[in-house]
Amino acid sequence: MSSGDLIADRRADYAEALLPEDPVAACDLYAQALELVPGWAAGWFRLGEIRAEADLAGAAHAFEQALAADPDDRLGASLQLDLLRNRSLADTMPSAFVETLFDQYAADFDGALVDKLGYRAPQLLAAGLVAPFGRVLDLGCGTGLMGRELRAGADWLEGWDISAEMLREAETKGLYDRLDKRDLSELAPEEERWDLITAADVFAYLGALERIVGWVAQALRPGGRFAFTVEAHEGLGAYVLRDSRRYAHAAGPLVALLDYAGFEVRMERRVLRQDRGAPIWGLVVQAVKRPAGRGDDSPRVKA
Q1: For the whole model, what pTM was predicted?
Q2: Where in the sequence of the chain do the CATH 3.40.50.150 domains occur?
Q3: CA 95, CA 90: separation in Å to the nearest integer?
Q4: Do residues 210 and 301 lie in contact, with contact meaning Cβ atoms separated by under 8 Å?
Q5: Residue 4, class by beta-carbon neighbours within 10 Å (0-12 exposed, 13-18 middle, 19+ buried)?
Q6: 74: Cα within 13 Å, side-chain hemisphere
Q7: Distance CA 26, CA 65 (A)
Q8: Phi-psi region of 271 (alpha: psi -120 to 50; beta: other; left: phi over 0)
Q9: CATH architecture of 6-89
Q10: Residues 285, 228: contact at Cβ < 8 Å?
Q11: What's the mean pLDDT when you consider all of the chain?
Q12: CATH code for the structural domain at 104-289
């Protein structure tokens, strides 16, 4: 988080030390540091986090400055602005933010998610799948937790992820026939080739799902399966950005989207993991692409 300026870094350190007792003074010190290095995105972001407790306008200004200093938005300043304004201006998360997040998280990912949070999306998805799986694509494969459930039933298992560090962790497990670095928000259409496509805990980082569902509908063979999880959203709208900086999706619009794209859908509401001791409820979705001849089988959602 260093600014590259020793004096600015020292003032930021003092600010962090003061924060528990005097947040106003801490904000002042961060502001002084940022006068020395106005292009310090991480400093602006941290100032925004501190101000968000009592000064929403000041927090928004700080996050705007962080975004201006880092237009790729590796820190997710645009998401913080969306949360402050209680509305999403984008339909997906910045790719650079997702990539940076998981590059940093990769080494401790399995232990943090499985051991500490009780993550079980791969097991819930696998319980609804019947082998053999044929040719399988694991979207957002991460370190290979879903791949572990798929390997025995797959003739070919391929994993795609935006994070190079996550892919390195996956490679050490020896589960996949091929691993590739891909941004799931920018997939190009391809010919039908897959019998099963999975996405465990992936769509929490994609808000609008029309594009990825359309892509999957084109990439699956007729009769192919699409198995994925989303966090469950009970309110208005197809999806919402939560304070956790993860998207949650509503069941009704999701079923309608999948039906429109040419899928038969089965869905269960299950606990996906824990967060701060509370269960995170989600939707475990098993969708089957309608075979040719059963209604209009051509995908109607563009990839």
Answers
A1: 0.89
A2: 104-289
A3: 12
A4: yes
A5: exposed
A6: 12
A7: 18
A8: beta
A9: Alpha Horseshoe (1.25)
A10: yes
A11: 93
A12: 3.40.50.150
| Nearest in space to 249 (alpha carbons), one of 237, 239, 259, 258 | 239
Q: Structure tokens of 248?
A: 């949650």
Q: CB of 229 within 8 A of CB of 271?
A: no
Q: Are 197 and 219 in contact (CB under 8 A)?
A: yes
H-assigned helices in 72-195: 77-85, 95-105, 109-110, 121-127, 145-150, 164-173
- DSSP SS3 for 248: strand
Do residues 186 and 94 touch, judged by C-beta distance below 8 A?
Answer: no
For the chain, what's the residue count?
A: 303
CA 223 – CA 11 distance, rounded (Å): 61
Query: Tens of pLDDT along 93-120?
Result: 999 999 999 999 999 999 888 888 999 9
**Residues 287, 225 contacting (CB under 8 angstroms):** yes
**Token pair 């606990």 is at which residue?**
271
Residue-wise pLDDT tens digits, 146-193:
999 999 999 999 999 999 999 999 999 999 999 999 999 999 887 779
E runs forming strands in 182-244? 194-199, 220-232, 239-241
